[in-house]
Design brief:
Length: 243
């Protein structure tokens, strides 16, 4: 009697950070957590006559998605850009006395690209294989019937990481407004898709959604309603005339 089990799983993670920066100025965005890491400690063993309380020194570091860019725009819309991208995470169950352990994938490079050009900055492909055998001693090595007393396991994992970059030069307010309105509508559509189903039992049947901005023209900023003009102060009463 033999029993076969095959499991196939796939994961596709897409992260699309957007960042606006001035010419020759560095910009940075971090999406993650600020995790403490132990950098030093002191424990009073009691052998010294001086009394010093035990302490630990901690340094906090950002763990998550980090994107840092510094663009330099040349003639014709050519962009020279220094890019640093990092994707890190804390290993589950690794928060011991020495602090947590992190997984980290980072990329740092300088590239030249045209306005609107999509360029691949780099990537990595990892393909790993492992196998294990669990068996009853002696019986698992028997021919023909040995498979009844033996369990064979094989696993294969493939990981692919690619980083793409698309610089867009914002030359005027119209281009800035069009890009802002596009991102605005993307976020609003995601909020509308995440609305909870109507329920007569639950009292909350909707979540906050950004207001509709489809009436705004590209390049025209969303204006606030005009405030009412302050009321005019009453005219001072005339001074009494002497007799």
């Amino acid at each position: 009697m033999a029993r076969l089990l095959e499991t196939v799983s796939g994961t596709n993670i897409l992260s699309t950070p957007n960042l606006v920066a001035l010419d020759n100025e560095e910009a940075k965005i971090v999406v993650g957590q600020n995790v403490p890491f132990v950098t030093g400690s002191f424990t009073n063993t009691g052998s010294s006559s001086s009394t010093v309380n035990p302490f630990q020194t901690v340094e906090r570091k950002d763990v998550g998605l980090t994107l840092k860019i510094k663009p330099q725009i040349g003639e014709g819309g050519v962009v020279r850009m220094t890019v640093y991208q990092e994707n890190s995470s804390v290993v589950p169950g690794s928060n011991g006395s020495n602090g947590p352990t992190t997984n980290k994938n980072s990329l740092e490079t300088t590239v030249v690209a045209d306005d609107g050009q999509i360029m691949v900055l780099g990537g990595q492909m990892k393909d790993s294989y492992s196998g294990d055998v669990s068996k009853v001693p002696l019986l698992g090595d028997l021919p023909l019937v040995g498979g009844l007393f033996r369990s064979d396991g094989r696993s294969r994992a493939k990981t692919m990481l690619l980083v793409f970059l698309r610089p867009t030069v914002i030359r005027d307010a119209q281009t800035a407004g069009a890009l802002s309105l596009d991102r605005y509508e993307v976020i609003r559509a995601m909020q509308q898709a995440a609305q909870p189903e109507n329920s007569k039992v639950m009292g909350i049947n909707e979540s906050p959604v950004l207001p509709d901005a489809t009436g705004a023209k590209p390049g025209v900023p969303l204006t606030r309603p005009a405030l009412p003009a302050p009321a005019a102060a009453p005219a001072p009463s005339p001074a009494p005339t002497p007799n």
